[in-house]
Input
Amino acid sequence: MRTKLRHSALPKARKRIHFRVYSLYLAYGQGIGYLGAEVQIGTKFSIAIHILLSVEVFKDKHKITSDFLAASANTNPVMIRKIMGLVREAGLIEVAKGTGGITLLKTPKEITLKDIYLAVNPIEDWKLFNIHKNSAAGCPVGGNILNLLDPYFTKAQNAMENNLSNSTLQNLLNDLKNR
Output
């Protein structure tokens, strides 16, 4: 249920919004993330997969354009074009000028989910998880947090990367045919 914002609450709401925007600016300006945003994988990854699957599934039936893909993914064509640009730069697709369509540059068997993930989510210094660095060195937790968490986070990242490396677009196409 939508509630109306009372006039007296407006300054407080503005302050809260300003604080959140300012916090985002500070957090991303220093590369430390905001509320775990760097840990959660965004929708660009799933949309990129959606694009590549659609290119292969509809290649002989439709001209694959950003408008066609946007209708399928139920998103804005501008978002599709931005993600297509990232996937194109990674060498996974070719985009014809105008309304020429999109084609895969590799076979679905050759395109791993890790390829797609890295195309739209480049990992800075190959670290999926960032650990805050300004903890109090004299604190038993703060002084050890980096060395404590790093092996666990590295293990989690390696497991994810191995899984994505062993999964291909062809695997997804096969699963899609069976649905």
